[in-house]
Amino acid sequence: MGIGDLFQGLFGAKKHGGNNLAPIEVNVKDERSLVGQKHSCSSCHQQLEEGILETNAFVCPHCGHHYRVTAQERLKLICDTGTFQEFYSDVLSTNAIGFPGYDAKLMEAQKSSGSNEAVITGLGEVGGRKVVFAVMTFKFMGGSMGSVVGEKIARAVLLGAENRQPVILFTTSGGARMQEGIFSLMQMAKTSAAIAQLDAAGVPLLVVLTDPTYGGVTASFAMLGDVIIAEPGAMVGFAGPRVIEGTMRQKLPDGFQTAEFLMEKGFIDAVVPRSDMKRVLGLLLDTNLPNKARIRL
Amino acid sequence: MSQEEIQLKLKELQTLAIKSNVDIGSELNRLSEKLSGSRLSPDDIWKKVEMARHSDRPTTLELIAAMADDFIELKGDRCYGDDPAMVGGIARIAGKPITFIGHQKGRNLKENIKRNYGWAHPEGYRKALRLALQAEKFNRPIVTFIDTAGAYPGLESELRGIGEAIARNLKEFSMLKVPVICFIIGEGGSGGALGIGVGNEVFMLENTMYSVISPEGFASILLRDASKTKEAAHLLKITPPDLLGFGIVDGIIPEPIGGAQSDHPTTAANIKQQILDSLSRLSAKSPEQLVRDRMNRLMGMGRFLDESAPKPGFFQRLFGIKS
Fold first, then answer.
1. pLDDT reading at A288 higher than 90
2. Which CATH number do you get for residue B139?
3. Is B217 in CB contact (< 8 Å) with chain A?
4. B-chain residues within 8 Å CB-CB of A218?
5. Where are the beta strands (DSSP E) in chain B?
6. How far is CA A286 from CA A139, A204, A205, B212, in A?
7. Domain A4-13+68-287, CATH
8. CB-CB under 8 Å, B217 with A4
9. Which among A179, A193, A247 has the least Cβ separation from residue B153?
10. Residue B9: inside a domain, yes or no?
11. Among the four A81, A116, A291, B123, which has the fewest Cβ within 10 Å?
């Protein structure tokens, strides 16, 4: 059992059949495939007018259900128009352990997601404040963390330390990218070590957890923000609910692993709806300025 | 020359290269990877997995007892409780004080129930961090023994923040100003292993494994057939020669004939020798240098293509990419 097994809790778990009470995992493609047309909300089932989700930041106007968004969509919502400059897009995955079919899988993911990896990194502005961004996208192989995700996040964090600019990380991930074997595991240590340097430099790290964030990402940079906020209803955990319920035969409490549950247990600072996210990030950026007294590493 | 002798020679060359500051390490790694890759059959690999999980292998506390002049176990995370699946304390090895931290499995069912089969909870990782920071405060080197199938994937673990506990260890261990030496003494299972696995030097015993996921999990998820565990273990590249080739670990500690389980004293003596060797090298470094070295090691982990790399020649050599 390991980080990779946790995927089971999100996507697989067929062998623990009969456990259909676990929270329903709707992937981006299914949930979002009808957006643009008239259809009903996947959460409250109320009718949604054509195009209403796009104008409402992909949040259901009836029940407030937050649909998953891609990294590009996220940046449009948070970053001032025209300020985002992408960095490190030349860092690309390679079949590090020679896993059969991985190259094809990567190409397929690039085609279907419109991204070349599961994270976009770069520099942008939030209400005129310069910020280093690392924004994950679940659409690319379930937001899984391989060498490229680790490298790009580490570079973004170190850029923040170097430039003394705050870093904002948006997470969404099923965990480690198993096709890269041990290299994927090591990205947990690499990203966390980069954050240790940002921390020593006295530069703030703001983490926003979005649905879903699991496994090796939860056990590394997702939990290391100076401030950790989450979107309403986002599922966040280490092991997936089905792994815990199925393998360990434990009954789970209501609302287990939701953002609200994590806040109640003391692991995140706040649950912030998408409509208020830019204001809250602005406030946090204004009140957590890089500490000039800290020596740059 | 036998394969083992070639491997030994390669290792010698590697050490020489590091000492004399010649950058042929990556080339040598590739060579050693090639050699080892051709050596182990799927059956051999599976044998290693079985050996790594063997219930008679020496445990953390047994190894410490076998190599220490003196030892006191220190318990508790000062927050929630004491986790019997993770142990730690201070020992004197050849007169030198060292903080030991490690997963603890049981030898039989009763012990394993107490030790939760070596699956640690958040309080285990928080105890490990407490002892590591204590060691740093008193300038004591740290040795960790990794032997777990993973961090406990249960309800209580989640409620007490297993993700946060492991994440914090990864961050804090990377900045420790004392030497940290890690040994995989049995199963190196994923984040639960890495949670005490960030060090200046990392070694694997000869018959151990280190993997992002268990072969069983990999088989059922990626190969979509739970019975393909042997194939999974083969594809995942989890044996010591694989990891040495990848540059993830620094060396392989030989086990006695028949494996570690057949001769605990010799196994302990081999590990002790490596601890003393590593310490003589690491103790000469300044605290800043130790942190820098560890950081460089961590930042270098990963394999990818970088189209904008400043030195394409270097990357081509390192990753074997044809331009």
1. yes
2. 3.90.226.10
3. yes
4. 163, 167
5. 70-73, 86-93, 96-103, 142-148, 180-189, 201-205, 209-211, 251-253, 304-306
6. 32, 11, 13, 39
7. 3.90.226.10
8. yes
9. A247
10. no
11. A81
Residue B245 lies in a domain: yes
Rounded Cα gap, residues B28 and B25, in angstroms: 5
ipTM of the complex: 0.89
Number of domains making up chain B: 1
Quickly tell me which residue has 């030892």 as its tokens. B71
Mean pLDDT of B11-24: 62
CB-based contact B25:B245 (threshold 8 Å): no
pTM here?
Answer: 0.88
In single-letter form, the type of residue at position B285 comes to: K
Q: Of B26, B190, B204, which to mutate for an interface test with A (greatest number of A Cβ within 10 Å)?
A: B190
Of A5, A216, A265, the CB nearest to B159: A265
Alpha-carbon gap: B259 to the closest alpha carbon of chain A (Å):
24
pLDDT computed for residue B35 by the predictor: 58
Domain membership of residue B137 (yes or no) is: yes
The stretch A190-214 carries a mean pLDDT of 97
Instruction: Determine which of B213, B236, B239 to mutate to test the interface with A (most A C-beta atoms within 10 Å).
Output: B213
Residue in chain A lying closest to B119 (CA): A1
- pLDDT of the residue at B7: 64
> Measured between CA atoms, how close is B315 to chain A, in angstroms?
12
Residues from chain B that touch A96, judged by Cβ atoms under 8 A, are 303-304
In this complex, the residue of A151, A180, A267 whose CB is nearest that of residue B164 is A267
Nearest-by-CA chain B residue for A12: B221
| Environment class of A280 (CB within 10 Å of its CB; exposed 0-12, middle 13-18, buried 19+) | middle
The confidence score (pLDDT) of residue B212 equals 96
Six-digit token pair at B19? 């000492």
Where in the sequence is the domain holding B261, given as residue range(s)?
A: 55-301
**Burial class of A217 by CB neighbour count within 10 A (0 to 12, 13 to 18, 19+):** buried
Q: What is the DSSP letter of A6?
A: G
Query: What SS3 state is found at B251?
Result: strand
| Amino acid found at A187 | Q
What is the phi-psi region of residue B89: left when phi exceeds 0, alpha when psi lies from -120 to 50, beta otherwise? left
